[in-house]
Amino acid sequence: TGAWLNFSFSHILSLWGTQAFLAMRPVSVWQWSLWGLLPCLLCSSCLGSPSPSTAPENRAGSQGLRFRLAGFPRKPFEGRVEIQRAGEWGTICDDDFTLQAAHVLCRELGFTEATGWTHSAKYGPGTGRIWLDNLSCSGTERSVTECASRGWGNSDCTHDEDAGVICKDERLPGFSDSNVIEGLVEVRVPDGWSQVCDKGWSAHNSHVVCGMLGFPSEKRVNVAFYRKLRKRAAKASARRSKPLGRPITKLKAKPKPRVGRGPIKRLLAQRQQHSFGLHGVACVGTEAHLSLCSLEFYRANDTTRCPGGAPAVVSCVPSPLYAASSGQKKQQSKPQGEARVRLKGGAHPGEGRVEVLKAGTWGTVCDRKWDLQAASVVCRELGFGSAREALSGARMGQGMGAIHLSEVRCSGQEPSLWKCPHRNITAEDCSHSQDAGVRCNLPYTGVETKIRLSGGRSRHEGRVEVQTGGPGSLRWGLICGDDWGTLEAMVACRQLGLGYANHGLQETWYWDSGNITEVVMSGVHCTGTELSLDQCAHHGTHVACKRTGSHFTAGVICSESEPLHMLYCAAEENCLASSARSANWPYGHRRLLRFSSQIHNLGRADFRPKAGRHSWVWHECHGHYHSMDIFTHYDILTPNGTKVAEGHKASFCLEDTECQEDVSKRYECANFGEQGITVGCWDLYRHDIDCQWIDITDVKPGNYILQVVINPNFEVAESDFTNNAMKCNCKYDGHRIWVHNCHIGDAFSEEANRRFERYPGQTSNQII
């Protein structure tokens, strides 16, 4: 036999404990509460896809540029200035920055003027390009393009010098802010949906409602304006009900309403029949759910409800993660300094194990006294809403390394978890089996309705189909498989709500495409952090594919989670490292290096299992027969030959997957068929099957040798065993593996083989 292996080294998977995901519908925000309350927002301006097809209208002179405020912590009218040019977001250096430049930028952002500006990345360092440096404006320019600078992209700054602005909280006439979500609040009670009386309604109440809807902050609403609209709508309704022929007094001309109020006006007019069910809402602002606030329900016999009041209206502000005008490249802004927080191990956005950065090292948080207030601080800090759940007991998998914080006690008002009182931990205080986690409220975007899978064996795999076009011309189509990989598959699985990506496939000939054959998207390139494929770079309406046909289109295999309880069968067959025996089953994790392998028969006789079918061993857990208990060995060796990790693969199905053109397949595993590999054929073991991996959980970063040996115990006679082994030099940095210099065992001369074994290892990721 000869071995040829297709390694998918990007598939170093972290396997986490059982995870549940609750999809957010447009109207329901919380599926369980103390009171059974389910608030919704009847939106006049609600959030659609995070990457809409049309951008807000650019002002004259903007030349296709787009602007946004980013960073944390901040208010809606302040932040780090970011500009999108040629599809790429970037920042402005603070060198020579003045209040005059801030005035121009605030007008670009839709505000009337600036009240101040900041330097030295006050709102946290940005990412990507630094578009402008030494920006010099007089303050009267209509666009930043009219200001002097060093030129686009010409800068000697770092992101520690990113400039920010503080704008006056007043909008320019005619400016539409697509990043503000406004609407009437309605609450689901046992009898149906009811409105909330706005008497005594406060910003704290809005803060809680917006948090439940997935937004980190709220914006002040002009209550007097809405009440005027309500009165005028009521008068108009009364006039329409008068008999014909009676004179109707005209309304006096009113000032032009602020932009964005028109839809609210129509909404108020449509909902004149108020159905108030709740009043006296008094939140402190730290609650994670409206039911935790002080409130009162109207009694059934209350004939007068909300006298002199109106339905409560809130205005929510999404973070840059979901802001409609944020464009295609969404980057999660990081707070300044070491007070940084991240989520790891979650199968879906807004959930995961909480990790914090201290003294340059990431560590976890102990779950002692961990509650919804602390979890909500984390969620809002990361740009989500309040917390749906505060998870304890390493529900999102055990972390590695240090445990930085314990007994975190937040009030819920803190801008960062680091601002909460906490106790520094010692080694004996807590273990990783007590790592804290969160599930956050996310805004509904509807992106999952624009993608689907077809032809797969289950709902978690298949050919990727996306919806394109505008109203009246929507159609489903395929994605070109050129350059499609794991990062793109990660985004697709995330958009589908199916969690992790096990694999991104460039050829899908084994999945039926049905009646969808048109390729509508090509050149897709993702960073892996996007929320939908729309946000990834791609060719747009111009589709260019090197290989035509529906068989060369993109496919994915997703997995909502791979907790340890999914590995019981693999553990039974000793496919995990010995340390797995002491793992926190079923919530621990294993790091697996997965790959696919092709086993070619290059000999002159068929390769058959040593034993006949009558003596094959049935394995109940996996539900198949083993024709050879040890068919392949997988090893990670140090340069001096010491084994640091190993794996093995039993032969449960030896068959002819593919053959040379003039050779016919003879062996097939289906229906307890004969097993073997015909001369001129090869067997394919895919990376997504159990034990097709090496458990590298305990392997430290360094330089190693990867070794694969077929038929290691010489159970089947062959004319030549030297081509059954393959070796590669590899470097592991704790997250990724670089492999090079791969060769079959008999491919090198003796001198070349000695040089390979004496290879000192890579000092960088550059292979020369």
TrEMBL record:
Cofactor: Cu cation
Residues forming coiled coils: none
Gene Ontology cellular-component terms listed: extracellular space; membrane
GO molecular function: copper ion binding; protein-lysine 6-oxidase activity
Protein location: Secreted, Extracellular space
Domain SRCR: 67-168, 170-317, 341-441, 451-559
Catalytic activity: L-lysyl-[protein] + O2 + H2O = (S)-2-amino-6-oxohexanoyl-[protein] + H2O2 + NH4(+)
Keywords, comma-separated and alphabetical: Copper, Disulfide bond, Glycoprotein, LTQ, Metal-binding, Oxidoreductase, Repeat, Secreted, Signal, TPQ
Signal peptide coordinates: 1-48
InterPro entries: LOX-like_protein (IPR050912), Lysyl_oxidase (IPR001695), Lysyl_oxidase_CS (IPR019828), SRCR (IPR001190), SRCR-like_dom_sf (IPR036772)
Intrachain disulfide bonds: 93-157, 106-167, 137-147, 283-293, 366-430, 379-440, 410-420, 526-536
Protein name, as recorded: Lysyl oxidase homolog
